[in-house]
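Q: Here's a chain of 507 amino acids. Please give me its 3D structure as C-alpha coordinates.
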Amino acid sequence: MKLQTDSTDQLIYENDLLQLTVLGGIKLEGLDRMRSTLKVQLQESSRPPVRHNLDLYNDTQLEKFIRKCAERLEIGTSIISASLSELTEELEKYRLQEIKTKEENLKPKFKKLNLGEIEEAETFLKQTDLLTKTNELIGKSGVIGEEINRLLMYIIFTSRKREQPLHVIGLGSSGTGKTHLQEKVGELIPEEERVSITTLSENAFYYFGKQELKNKVILIEDLDGAENALYPLRELQTKKRIVKTIASKNTKGETQTKYLVVEGPVCVAGCTTKEHIYEDNANRSFLIYLDESTIQDEKIMQYQRQLSAGEINTYEQKEIQEFLQNTQRVLKPITIRNPFANKLNLPQSVFKPRRTNNHYLQFIEAITFYYQYQREQQTDKETGEIYIETTLEDIENANRLLKEVLLRKSDELTGSCRNYLETLKTYLKAKKKKEFTGLEIRTQLRIKESTLRNYHKHLQLLGYIKRNTNKKTRSYTFELVISKDYETLQKDIQTALDKALQNIKKK
Protein backbone atom coordinates (compact mmCIF):
# COMPACT_ATOMS: atom_id res chain seq x y z
CA MET A 1 0.00 0.00 0.00
CA LYS A 2 1.07 3.55 -0.65
CA LEU A 3 1.55 6.08 2.12
CA GLN A 4 -1.46 8.41 2.41
CA THR A 5 -0.21 11.99 2.71
CA ASP A 6 -3.44 13.99 2.44
CA SER A 7 -2.61 15.53 5.82
CA THR A 8 1.03 16.25 6.68
CA ASP A 9 0.15 15.89 10.37
CA GLN A 10 -1.38 12.44 9.94
CA LEU A 11 0.41 10.07 7.58
CA ILE A 12 -1.37 6.74 7.13
CA TYR A 13 0.02 3.44 5.87
CA GLU A 14 -2.22 0.37 5.52
CA ASN A 15 -1.86 -3.27 4.54
CA ASP A 16 -4.20 -6.25 4.79
CA LEU A 17 -3.79 -6.63 8.56
CA LEU A 18 -2.61 -3.34 10.03
CA GLN A 19 -3.13 0.39 9.85
CA LEU A 20 -0.10 2.45 10.90
CA THR A 21 -0.59 6.16 11.50
CA VAL A 22 2.24 8.66 12.00
CA LEU A 23 0.76 11.29 14.29
CA GLY A 24 2.15 14.80 13.89
CA GLY A 25 4.03 13.89 10.72
CA ILE A 26 7.82 13.68 10.58
CA LYS A 27 10.53 16.31 10.73
CA LEU A 28 12.33 17.04 7.49
CA GLU A 29 15.53 18.05 9.27
CA GLY A 30 18.09 15.43 10.26
CA LEU A 31 18.18 12.53 7.83
CA ASP A 32 20.15 10.48 10.36
CA ARG A 33 17.05 9.91 12.49
CA MET A 34 13.33 9.42 12.10
CA ARG A 35 11.54 10.23 15.32
CA SER A 36 7.83 9.67 15.06
CA THR A 37 4.73 9.02 17.12
CA LEU A 38 3.06 5.85 15.83
CA LYS A 39 -0.44 4.54 16.24
CA VAL A 40 -0.74 0.85 15.31
CA GLN A 41 -4.11 -0.87 15.09
CA LEU A 42 -5.62 -3.99 13.57
CA GLN A 43 -7.88 -3.62 10.56
CA GLU A 44 -11.57 -4.05 11.42
CA SER A 45 -10.89 -4.88 15.06
CA SER A 46 -12.20 -3.52 18.33
CA ARG A 47 -8.85 -3.95 20.05
CA PRO A 48 -7.43 -0.63 21.27
CA PRO A 49 -4.52 0.67 19.18
CA VAL A 50 -0.93 0.90 20.41
CA ARG A 51 0.59 4.38 20.56
CA HIS A 52 4.28 5.00 21.06
CA ASN A 53 6.99 7.55 20.33
CA LEU A 54 10.28 6.22 18.96
CA ASP A 55 13.08 6.62 16.46
CA LEU A 56 12.48 4.17 13.62
CA TYR A 57 16.24 4.12 12.97
CA ASN A 58 16.97 2.99 16.56
CA ASP A 59 17.11 -0.80 16.45
CA THR A 60 16.73 -1.26 20.22
CA GLN A 61 13.65 0.95 20.42
CA LEU A 62 12.18 -0.72 17.36
CA GLU A 63 12.56 -4.25 18.75
CA LYS A 64 10.89 -3.30 22.03
CA PHE A 65 8.05 -1.65 20.15
CA ILE A 66 7.54 -4.72 17.92
CA ARG A 67 7.26 -6.99 20.97
CA LYS A 68 4.90 -4.55 22.65
CA CYS A 69 2.61 -4.44 19.60
CA ALA A 70 2.68 -8.23 19.20
CA GLU A 71 1.67 -8.65 22.83
CA ARG A 72 -1.10 -6.04 22.80
CA LEU A 73 -2.57 -6.93 19.40
CA GLU A 74 -1.89 -10.68 19.68
CA ILE A 75 -0.25 -11.09 16.28
CA GLY A 76 3.15 -12.33 15.19
CA THR A 77 6.23 -10.16 15.52
CA SER A 78 7.23 -10.91 11.92
CA ILE A 79 4.05 -9.26 10.61
CA ILE A 80 4.60 -6.12 12.67
CA SER A 81 8.30 -6.03 11.79
CA ALA A 82 7.56 -6.29 8.06
CA SER A 83 4.86 -3.60 8.28
CA LEU A 84 7.16 -1.20 10.14
CA SER A 85 9.90 -1.85 7.61
CA GLU A 86 7.51 -1.03 4.76
CA LEU A 87 6.36 2.10 6.61
CA THR A 88 9.95 3.24 7.11
CA GLU A 89 10.69 2.82 3.41
CA GLU A 90 7.63 4.88 2.49
CA LEU A 91 8.47 7.58 5.03
CA GLU A 92 12.01 7.88 3.67
CA LYS A 93 10.68 8.38 0.14
CA TYR A 94 8.11 10.87 1.41
CA ARG A 95 10.67 12.86 3.39
CA LEU A 96 13.16 13.09 0.52
CA GLN A 97 10.39 14.20 -1.83
CA GLU A 98 9.22 16.86 0.63
CA ILE A 99 12.77 18.16 1.06
CA LYS A 100 13.18 18.35 -2.70
CA THR A 101 9.86 20.16 -3.09
CA LYS A 102 10.77 22.60 -0.33
CA GLU A 103 14.12 23.37 -1.94
CA GLU A 104 12.45 23.91 -5.30
CA ASN A 105 9.96 26.32 -3.75
CA LEU A 106 12.77 28.28 -2.12
CA LYS A 107 14.60 28.72 -5.39
CA PRO A 108 13.83 32.00 -7.16
CA LYS A 109 11.50 31.51 -10.06
CA PHE A 110 13.21 32.80 -13.17
CA LYS A 111 10.95 33.95 -15.93
CA LYS A 112 12.07 32.84 -19.35
CA LEU A 113 11.22 35.46 -21.93
CA ASN A 114 9.81 34.39 -25.27
CA LEU A 115 11.18 35.82 -28.51
CA GLY A 116 8.41 38.42 -28.72
CA GLU A 117 9.09 39.73 -25.21
CA ILE A 118 12.84 39.87 -25.85
CA GLU A 119 12.36 41.77 -29.10
CA GLU A 120 9.91 44.20 -27.48
CA ALA A 121 12.28 44.91 -24.57
CA GLU A 122 15.32 45.35 -26.82
CA THR A 123 13.38 47.66 -29.15
CA PHE A 124 12.47 49.85 -26.18
CA LEU A 125 16.09 50.00 -25.00
CA LYS A 126 17.18 51.12 -28.48
CA GLN A 127 14.90 54.18 -28.47
CA THR A 128 16.29 57.69 -28.47
CA ASP A 129 15.65 59.68 -25.30
CA LEU A 130 15.50 56.39 -23.41
CA LEU A 131 15.62 57.91 -19.92
CA THR A 132 12.66 60.20 -20.61
CA LYS A 133 10.56 57.34 -21.95
CA THR A 134 11.60 55.15 -19.02
CA ASN A 135 10.59 57.86 -16.57
CA GLU A 136 7.20 58.17 -18.25
CA LEU A 137 6.61 54.44 -17.85
CA ILE A 138 7.69 54.57 -14.21
CA GLY A 139 5.05 57.24 -13.66
CA LYS A 140 2.41 55.16 -15.43
CA SER A 141 3.32 52.15 -13.28
CA GLY A 142 1.94 53.91 -10.20
CA VAL A 143 4.81 56.09 -8.92
CA ILE A 144 3.31 59.53 -8.37
CA GLY A 145 5.54 62.59 -8.73
CA GLU A 146 9.18 62.38 -7.57
CA GLU A 147 10.27 62.51 -11.22
CA ILE A 148 13.99 62.87 -10.51
CA ASN A 149 14.10 60.60 -7.46
CA ARG A 150 12.24 57.73 -9.08
CA LEU A 151 14.46 57.69 -12.17
CA LEU A 152 17.58 58.04 -10.03
CA MET A 153 16.48 55.08 -7.90
CA TYR A 154 15.64 53.01 -10.98
CA ILE A 155 19.11 53.54 -12.49
CA ILE A 156 20.71 52.71 -9.14
CA PHE A 157 18.71 49.47 -8.96
CA THR A 158 19.80 48.68 -12.53
CA SER A 159 23.44 48.86 -11.39
CA ARG A 160 22.95 45.64 -9.38
CA LYS A 161 24.13 43.69 -12.44
CA ARG A 162 27.51 45.40 -12.38
CA GLU A 163 30.62 44.61 -10.35
CA GLN A 164 30.32 47.95 -8.53
CA PRO A 165 26.62 48.41 -7.72
CA LEU A 166 25.33 51.66 -6.30
CA HIS A 167 23.27 52.11 -3.14
CA VAL A 168 20.54 54.53 -2.11
CA ILE A 169 18.92 55.80 1.08
CA GLY A 170 15.56 57.56 0.97
CA LEU A 171 15.20 60.36 3.51
CA GLY A 172 12.18 62.33 4.58
CA SER A 173 9.73 63.00 7.37
CA SER A 174 7.43 60.30 8.64
CA GLY A 175 4.49 59.70 6.33
CA THR A 176 6.05 61.24 3.21
CA GLY A 177 6.08 57.97 1.28
CA LYS A 178 9.74 56.91 1.48
CA THR A 179 8.95 53.21 1.72
CA HIS A 180 6.21 53.52 -0.89
CA LEU A 181 8.59 55.04 -3.44
CA GLN A 182 11.21 52.38 -2.77
CA GLU A 183 8.64 49.60 -2.95
CA LYS A 184 7.02 50.81 -6.18
CA VAL A 185 10.34 51.32 -7.98
CA GLY A 186 11.51 47.98 -6.56
CA GLU A 187 8.54 46.29 -8.21
CA LEU A 188 10.01 47.27 -11.58
CA ILE A 189 12.96 44.96 -10.88
CA PRO A 190 12.41 41.23 -11.61
CA GLU A 191 11.16 39.38 -8.54
CA GLU A 192 14.03 36.89 -8.67
CA GLU A 193 16.54 39.74 -8.47
CA ARG A 194 15.25 41.56 -5.41
CA VAL A 195 14.94 40.78 -1.71
CA SER A 196 12.52 42.77 0.46
CA ILE A 197 13.27 42.91 4.18
CA THR A 198 11.21 44.44 6.99
CA THR A 199 13.55 43.77 9.90
CA LEU A 200 16.91 42.07 10.37
CA SER A 201 18.60 40.49 13.35
CA GLU A 202 22.28 41.10 14.00
CA ASN A 203 23.53 37.92 12.31
CA ALA A 204 20.79 37.47 9.72
CA PHE A 205 22.97 38.34 6.72
CA TYR A 206 25.45 35.56 7.50
CA TYR A 207 22.82 32.85 7.07
CA PHE A 208 21.88 33.60 3.49
CA GLY A 209 23.22 31.14 0.93
CA LYS A 210 26.70 31.85 -0.37
CA GLN A 211 25.44 33.38 -3.62
CA GLU A 212 21.83 33.94 -2.65
CA LEU A 213 22.23 37.72 -2.61
CA LYS A 214 24.66 38.10 -5.50
CA ASN A 215 23.68 40.85 -7.96
CA LYS A 216 20.38 41.44 -6.20
CA VAL A 217 18.62 44.52 -4.86
CA ILE A 218 18.13 44.40 -1.09
CA LEU A 219 15.17 46.58 -0.12
CA ILE A 220 15.11 47.42 3.59
CA GLU A 221 11.81 49.04 4.48
CA ASP A 222 13.13 50.90 7.52
CA LEU A 223 16.78 51.11 8.52
CA ASP A 224 15.63 51.46 12.14
CA GLY A 225 14.49 47.84 11.94
CA ALA A 226 17.90 46.72 10.68
CA GLU A 227 20.09 48.76 13.00
CA ASN A 228 21.85 45.71 14.46
CA ALA A 229 22.70 44.39 11.00
CA LEU A 230 24.20 47.59 9.61
CA TYR A 231 27.83 46.56 10.13
CA PRO A 232 27.70 43.36 8.00
CA LEU A 233 25.57 45.30 5.52
CA ARG A 234 28.29 47.95 5.17
CA GLU A 235 30.94 45.27 4.73
CA LEU A 236 28.84 43.58 2.07
CA GLN A 237 28.52 46.91 0.28
CA THR A 238 32.21 47.73 0.46
CA LYS A 239 34.02 44.39 0.35
CA LYS A 240 31.27 42.49 -1.51
CA ARG A 241 31.82 39.54 0.81
CA ILE A 242 31.21 38.82 4.48
CA VAL A 243 32.56 35.92 6.54
CA LYS A 244 31.55 34.74 10.00
CA THR A 245 33.16 31.92 11.97
CA ILE A 246 31.07 29.78 14.31
CA ALA A 247 31.86 26.76 16.46
CA SER A 248 29.93 23.57 15.72
CA LYS A 249 30.25 19.90 16.65
CA ASN A 250 30.79 17.13 14.12
CA THR A 251 29.29 13.63 14.30
CA LYS A 252 32.05 12.57 16.72
CA GLY A 253 31.21 15.38 19.12
CA GLU A 254 34.38 17.30 18.29
CA THR A 255 34.20 21.10 18.13
CA GLN A 256 35.13 22.52 14.75
CA THR A 257 35.27 25.97 13.22
CA LYS A 258 32.75 26.56 10.48
CA TYR A 259 32.82 29.47 8.03
CA LEU A 260 29.65 31.21 6.91
CA VAL A 261 30.36 33.07 3.67
CA VAL A 262 27.95 35.35 1.82
CA GLU A 263 29.06 36.91 -1.45
CA GLY A 264 27.98 40.05 -3.24
CA PRO A 265 27.96 42.40 -4.94
CA VAL A 266 24.58 43.73 -3.88
CA CYS A 267 22.61 46.92 -4.37
CA VAL A 268 21.18 48.13 -1.07
CA ALA A 269 18.25 50.50 -0.62
CA GLY A 270 16.78 51.68 2.67
CA CYS A 271 14.58 54.37 4.18
CA THR A 272 14.88 56.41 7.35
CA THR A 273 13.95 59.68 8.99
CA LYS A 274 17.20 59.76 11.01
CA GLU A 275 19.84 61.01 8.61
CA HIS A 276 22.62 61.67 11.13
CA ILE A 277 22.39 58.24 12.82
CA TYR A 278 23.28 56.28 9.69
CA GLU A 279 26.19 58.45 8.53
CA ASP A 280 28.50 55.49 7.82
CA ASN A 281 25.88 53.88 5.60
CA ALA A 282 24.99 57.23 4.05
CA ASN A 283 28.60 57.74 2.98
CA ARG A 284 28.32 54.61 0.85
CA SER A 285 24.99 55.58 -0.68
CA PHE A 286 23.21 58.15 -2.74
CA LEU A 287 20.92 60.20 -0.53
CA ILE A 288 17.59 61.19 -1.99
CA TYR A 289 15.27 63.56 -0.17
CA LEU A 290 11.59 63.14 -0.83
CA ASP A 291 9.47 65.98 -2.12
CA GLU A 292 7.44 67.22 0.86
CA SER A 293 5.87 70.16 -0.97
CA THR A 294 2.14 70.88 -1.01
CA ILE A 295 2.16 70.30 -4.78
CA GLN A 296 3.39 66.73 -4.24
CA ASP A 297 0.80 66.28 -1.48
CA GLU A 298 -1.94 67.28 -3.90
CA LYS A 299 -0.64 64.90 -6.60
CA ILE A 300 -0.73 61.97 -4.19
CA MET A 301 -4.16 62.84 -2.77
CA GLN A 302 -5.58 63.26 -6.27
CA TYR A 303 -4.23 59.83 -7.21
CA GLN A 304 -5.79 58.36 -4.05
CA ARG A 305 -9.15 59.88 -5.00
CA GLN A 306 -8.94 58.50 -8.52
CA LEU A 307 -7.96 55.08 -7.20
CA SER A 308 -10.90 55.09 -4.80
CA ALA A 309 -13.23 56.14 -7.63
CA GLY A 310 -12.01 53.27 -9.82
CA GLU A 311 -10.51 55.64 -12.39
CA ILE A 312 -7.01 54.11 -12.25
CA ASN A 313 -6.29 51.24 -14.62
CA THR A 314 -4.40 48.93 -12.25
CA TYR A 315 -4.22 46.24 -14.95
CA GLU A 316 -2.28 48.63 -17.19
CA GLN A 317 0.03 49.48 -14.27
CA LYS A 318 0.75 45.78 -13.80
CA GLU A 319 1.50 45.36 -17.50
CA ILE A 320 3.97 48.26 -17.40
CA GLN A 321 5.66 46.78 -14.33
CA GLU A 322 6.11 43.46 -16.13
CA PHE A 323 7.39 45.20 -19.25
CA LEU A 324 10.03 47.17 -17.32
CA GLN A 325 11.00 43.95 -15.54
CA ASN A 326 11.54 42.37 -18.95
CA THR A 327 13.76 45.27 -20.03
CA GLN A 328 15.83 44.61 -16.93
CA ARG A 329 16.08 40.92 -17.79
CA VAL A 330 17.58 41.58 -21.23
CA LEU A 331 20.35 43.81 -19.85
CA LYS A 332 23.60 41.85 -19.88
CA PRO A 333 26.74 42.38 -17.78
CA ILE A 334 29.34 44.21 -19.84
CA THR A 335 32.44 46.27 -19.13
CA ILE A 336 32.03 50.05 -19.28
CA ARG A 337 34.87 52.43 -20.11
CA ASN A 338 34.60 56.17 -19.69
CA PRO A 339 37.09 57.92 -22.00
CA PHE A 340 36.18 61.29 -20.44
CA ALA A 341 36.78 60.26 -16.82
CA ASN A 342 40.10 62.12 -16.51
CA LYS A 343 38.42 65.39 -17.46
CA LEU A 344 35.53 65.15 -14.99
CA ASN A 345 35.93 67.12 -11.78
CA LEU A 346 33.57 67.44 -8.84
CA PRO A 347 32.72 70.85 -7.41
CA GLN A 348 35.22 71.76 -4.68
CA SER A 349 32.39 72.35 -2.22
CA VAL A 350 31.49 68.63 -2.05
CA PHE A 351 32.19 67.00 1.31
CA LYS A 352 34.12 63.69 1.34
CA PRO A 353 35.08 64.08 -2.33
CA ARG A 354 36.90 60.74 -2.65
CA ARG A 355 33.84 58.61 -2.14
CA THR A 356 31.48 61.07 -3.85
CA ASN A 357 33.74 61.19 -6.91
CA ASN A 358 33.62 57.41 -7.16
CA HIS A 359 29.82 57.48 -6.88
CA TYR A 360 29.63 60.12 -9.60
CA LEU A 361 31.75 58.09 -12.03
CA GLN A 362 29.90 54.86 -11.24
CA PHE A 363 26.54 56.51 -11.83
CA ILE A 364 27.68 57.70 -15.26
CA GLU A 365 28.72 54.12 -16.00
CA ALA A 366 25.32 52.87 -14.78
CA ILE A 367 23.61 55.11 -17.33
CA THR A 368 25.93 53.82 -20.05
CA PHE A 369 25.07 50.29 -18.93
CA TYR A 370 21.36 51.05 -19.32
CA TYR A 371 22.06 52.38 -22.83
CA GLN A 372 24.04 49.26 -23.79
CA TYR A 373 21.78 48.49 -26.78
CA GLN A 374 22.65 51.90 -28.22
CA ARG A 375 26.41 51.65 -27.72
CA GLU A 376 28.76 49.94 -30.13
CA GLN A 377 30.64 47.02 -28.62
CA GLN A 378 34.41 47.31 -28.89
CA THR A 379 37.21 44.85 -28.25
CA ASP A 380 40.42 45.53 -26.36
CA LYS A 381 43.22 44.55 -28.73
CA GLU A 382 45.50 43.46 -25.91
CA THR A 383 43.14 41.56 -23.62
CA GLY A 384 40.29 40.70 -25.99
CA GLU A 385 37.80 42.14 -23.50
CA ILE A 386 34.52 43.38 -24.96
CA TYR A 387 33.37 46.78 -23.69
CA ILE A 388 31.23 49.80 -24.48
CA GLU A 389 32.13 53.45 -23.99
CA THR A 390 30.45 56.29 -22.16
CA THR A 391 29.21 59.17 -24.32
CA LEU A 392 28.72 62.86 -23.59
CA GLU A 393 24.98 62.22 -23.52
CA ASP A 394 25.47 59.84 -20.59
CA ILE A 395 27.44 62.47 -18.67
CA GLU A 396 24.81 65.14 -19.37
CA ASN A 397 22.05 62.81 -18.14
CA ALA A 398 24.05 61.99 -15.01
CA ASN A 399 24.67 65.67 -14.26
CA ARG A 400 20.99 66.44 -14.62
CA LEU A 401 19.94 63.65 -12.27
CA LEU A 402 22.72 64.12 -9.74
CA LYS A 403 22.62 67.89 -9.38
CA GLU A 404 20.40 67.73 -6.30
CA VAL A 405 22.40 64.82 -4.85
CA LEU A 406 25.69 66.70 -5.25
CA LEU A 407 24.06 69.78 -3.79
CA ARG A 408 23.06 67.87 -0.67
CA LYS A 409 26.53 66.32 -0.48
CA SER A 410 27.97 69.84 -0.47
CA ASP A 411 25.63 71.20 2.17
CA GLU A 412 26.74 71.34 5.80
CA LEU A 413 23.11 71.17 6.92
CA THR A 414 21.11 67.96 7.09
CA GLY A 415 18.37 67.57 4.51
CA SER A 416 15.50 68.19 6.92
CA CYS A 417 17.20 71.22 8.44
CA ARG A 418 17.93 72.64 4.98
CA ASN A 419 14.32 72.12 3.93
CA TYR A 420 13.18 74.01 7.02
CA LEU A 421 15.62 76.86 6.42
CA GLU A 422 14.52 77.30 2.81
CA THR A 423 10.86 77.26 3.86
CA LEU A 424 11.69 79.83 6.55
CA LYS A 425 13.42 82.06 3.99
CA THR A 426 10.39 81.92 1.71
CA TYR A 427 8.08 82.80 4.59
CA LEU A 428 10.20 85.73 5.78
CA LYS A 429 10.62 87.02 2.23
CA ALA A 430 6.85 87.04 1.78
CA LYS A 431 6.47 88.90 5.09
CA LYS A 432 9.35 91.26 4.14
CA LYS A 433 11.20 90.85 7.42
CA LYS A 434 14.21 89.09 8.92
CA GLU A 435 13.20 88.65 12.55
CA PHE A 436 10.78 86.02 13.82
CA THR A 437 9.73 84.18 16.95
CA GLY A 438 9.52 80.47 17.59
CA LEU A 439 5.79 80.68 18.31
CA GLU A 440 5.15 82.52 15.05
CA ILE A 441 7.00 79.95 12.94
CA ARG A 442 5.54 77.01 14.83
CA THR A 443 2.04 78.36 14.20
CA GLN A 444 2.51 79.43 10.59
CA LEU A 445 4.58 76.50 9.35
CA ARG A 446 2.94 73.89 11.60
CA ILE A 447 6.12 72.39 13.04
CA LYS A 448 6.40 70.56 16.36
CA GLU A 449 8.03 72.56 19.15
CA SER A 450 10.77 69.99 19.83
CA THR A 451 11.63 69.72 16.13
CA LEU A 452 11.72 73.49 15.73
CA ARG A 453 13.96 73.86 18.77
CA ASN A 454 16.44 71.37 17.30
CA TYR A 455 16.46 73.20 13.96
CA HIS A 456 17.10 76.57 15.62
CA LYS A 457 19.85 75.14 17.81
CA HIS A 458 21.63 73.70 14.78
CA LEU A 459 21.18 76.85 12.68
CA GLN A 460 22.47 79.04 15.51
CA LEU A 461 25.51 76.83 15.94
CA LEU A 462 26.41 77.20 12.26
CA GLY A 463 25.64 80.92 12.17
CA TYR A 464 22.61 80.91 9.88
CA ILE A 465 20.41 82.62 12.46
CA LYS A 466 21.13 84.50 15.66
CA ARG A 467 19.14 85.04 18.83
CA ASN A 468 18.32 88.60 19.92
CA THR A 469 17.28 89.12 23.55
CA ASN A 470 15.11 92.01 24.77
CA LYS A 471 16.45 92.84 28.24
CA LYS A 472 13.37 94.76 29.29
CA THR A 473 10.78 92.12 28.47
CA ARG A 474 13.20 89.19 28.83
CA SER A 475 11.84 87.84 25.56
CA TYR A 476 13.84 86.97 22.51
CA THR A 477 13.53 86.73 18.75
CA PHE A 478 15.54 85.06 16.03
CA GLU A 479 17.11 86.84 13.08
CA LEU A 480 18.07 85.37 9.74
CA VAL A 481 21.75 86.13 9.11
CA ILE A 482 22.63 84.12 5.99
CA SER A 483 20.02 84.12 3.25
CA LYS A 484 21.64 83.37 -0.12
CA ASP A 485 24.04 80.53 0.72
CA TYR A 486 21.99 77.82 -0.98
CA GLU A 487 21.57 79.76 -4.20
CA THR A 488 25.32 80.36 -4.31
CA LEU A 489 26.00 76.67 -3.69
CA GLN A 490 23.58 75.67 -6.46
CA LYS A 491 25.24 78.06 -8.87
CA ASP A 492 28.75 76.82 -7.99
CA ILE A 493 27.81 73.19 -8.56
CA GLN A 494 26.04 73.87 -11.84
CA THR A 495 28.98 75.97 -13.03
CA ALA A 496 31.49 73.26 -12.15
CA LEU A 497 29.51 70.55 -13.96
CA ASP A 498 28.92 72.75 -17.02
CA LYS A 499 32.57 73.76 -17.16
CA ALA A 500 33.75 70.15 -17.16
CA LEU A 501 31.41 69.32 -20.04
CA GLN A 502 32.48 72.37 -22.03
CA ASN A 503 36.14 71.44 -21.64
CA ILE A 504 35.41 67.94 -22.95
CA LYS A 505 33.46 69.27 -25.93
CA LYS A 506 36.26 71.70 -26.85
CA LYS A 507 38.76 68.88 -27.06
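Q: Can you summarize the key feature?
A: The chain has a mean pLDDT of 86.
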